Amino acid sequence: MTTSSVLSPATDRSTNADKVELSHVNVFVPQSIVTTNVLLILVRNLSLSLRPGNHLMITRTNGVSKTSIARVIAGLWAGCSYTSKLASSSSSVSRPPGKKGVFVVPQRSYMVSGSLLDQVIYPDSYAEFVESGSRVEELKEDFGGSELGMAMARVFHHRPKFAVLDECTSAVSSDMEGHMYEHAKSLGITVTPSKISSTVHLTL
Predict the structure, then answer these.
(1) Mean confidence (pLDDT) of the chain
(2) What is the mean pLDDT of residues 132-145?
(3) What is the C-alpha R_g of the chain?
(4) What is the pTM of this model?
(5) Rounded to the nearest 5°, which phi and psi values hold at 161?
(6) Exposed (0-12), middle (13-18) or buried (19+): which is 113, by Cβ within 10 Å?
(7) How do beta strands 162-166 and 102-105 pair?
(8) What are the residues facing 41 on neighbouring strands?
(9) Which residues, other chains included, contact 55 with Cβ-Cβ below 8 Å and sequence gap of 6+?
(10) Residue 116: CB partners within 8 Å, gap ≥ 6?
């Protein structure tokens, strides 16, 4: 653990560049500052760069900060600068803006009140769906499989540049999961799934 007075927030910015990039970022638990005034560091000095087609799978056993890394990549959690006794460096997190840039899929999908169409197009409204020129027939073409998870249905509909998938495919078979990832790749979506390592049988 590191006291909050030692570290400063990472620079977080949206960029039109087609990449997601973390540079020298410490991943920490935000609530730890509020409850103890101490930063609980989960991952130190993390750097990575994701470009279209550069898929990344985060794998480890349960409870080792996979979700925390995904939240920083997605912008749900802030990162902070890396500092040690020997050196310190400024840190930054950058990603394309909006849901067309990075689309986050949590472990449990939020279900809205409404029809199946309302579920798939969330967080868009029906009016936004119509305005976009999308058609219900297109949804049927993409989502014909009865085993298709709602989370991935939303990813396929919105077609973001990057999709951060936080163990959201655990309810489907390994074969269907592989099919989902292949379909996402065919749509030009760069996927960053997190998985419990003992169950990973996929090559991205």
Answers:
(1) 74
(2) 69
(3) 18
(4) 0.74
(5) -70, -40
(6) exposed
(7) parallel
(8) 28
(9) 185, 190, 191, 192, 204
(10) none
